[in-house]
Amino acid sequence: MDFELTEEQKMLQQVAYEFAVNEFTPIAKEYDREERFPREVWKKACENGLIGAYIPEEYGGMGAGFLENALITEQFSRVDMGIGLIGAATFGSENILFFGTEEQKQKYLPLIASGEAISAGAYTEPNAGTDVAGIKTRARKDGGDYVINGSKMFITNGTICDFMVVLAVTNPEAEKRHQRQSLILVEADRDGITRTKIHGKMGIRASDTAEIAFDDVRVPQSNLIGQEGRGFYEVMQFFDVTRIMVAAQGVGVAQGAFDLALKYVQERKAFGRPIIANQAVQFKLAEMATKIELARTLMYRAAWTIDNGATDPKLNAMAKYYAGHTATWVTNEALQLHGGYGYIDEYDIQRFYRDARILEIYEGVREAELMTIARRLV
User: Fold this and answer.
1) Cα distance from N-terminal residue to C-terminal residue, the chain
2) Does an H or E element contain 12, and which?
3) pLDDT tens-digit map of 254-279
4) Does the pTM of the predicted model rise above 0.85?
5) DSSP string computed for 173-235
6) What are the structural domains of the chain?
7) 58-62: Cβ within 8 A, 24+ apart
8) Catalytic residue annotation
């Protein structure tokens, strides 16, 4: 059993980290305050092969695995999770890679890899989050088209995407509700689409989040991704993979918060000596470092399993659950070590603290991950 990364993987880690330090650090505070997507940085990341690393070479990508993609995601989030979500500019396009036709792959995946397009996954609705099968957005057939009506909520890249993969009800009469949905690719400039940016998020403010409404939006039936009536199952398979990227975000933001806390306690003095001289502080750092390493090992194993063709939903749910828990705990403790300074905008730790909280909510709340794990224990 080899727990060592290859030299190529270590190099990719270093390249991603250095890119993030150089490109994210100067703008992180500004883009957080202004809730602005860093389009120029995203473009540079695409040019350096750091976006969609898992996209095969024949479609313009690096042809790496999901472990390599997780390594990049971890290092991005270590520096700044909000800016680091430029890595999610591919979100939703994984469905095209997994289930799309060859024509769809040839048309859309190169656009993602080259930085010519941003994608979105439009699944969540105002009254259907964790209950994915409870969506109401409808796509009825009319001639050779689907006509889509409904709304989506909390859509990453919603106002900046060039196309989105929409989960919609296409087979309302199916006996089982899990067999009523399909995935449909919808270009963002279609008539009848209204996209509204969500302002005032607690964290990840540089990442675009939106509400999207569909009013008689027409798309050709050839835009169907995968099989009609199999959309729910396809989305579940999609989440099995993307949960690993959320776990990687958790590991990264926890490591970044630890880095900030360690630096602060080494420099800050109290009672005539550095704070780190106190054994209680040393023990807290040791506990933080241990939890981060546990989360990292679990996340790496889950990603490695996917790349080796044996996706394990329980393991993936464990990775996301524990990494999210670790991120919120570590950032909280790191802020505590900063004392009053951790509570003000001048210090980056408060942004890490705010960003981390979403990790136990999006792509499956922590309770949903526990349900997934529990079902596979008996």
Assistant:
1) 27
2) helix 7-23
3) 999 999 999 999 999 999 999 999 99
4) yes
5) T-SSGGGSEEEEEEETTSTTEEEEEPP--SS-TTS-EEEEEEEEEEEEGGGEES-TT-HHHHH
6) 7-114 (1.10.540.10), 119-229 (2.40.110.10), 233-375 (1.20.140.10)
7) 59/97, 59/105, 59/106, 59/109, 59/110, 59/113, 60/109, 60/110, 60/113, 60/114, 61/109, 61/113, 62/113
8) 363
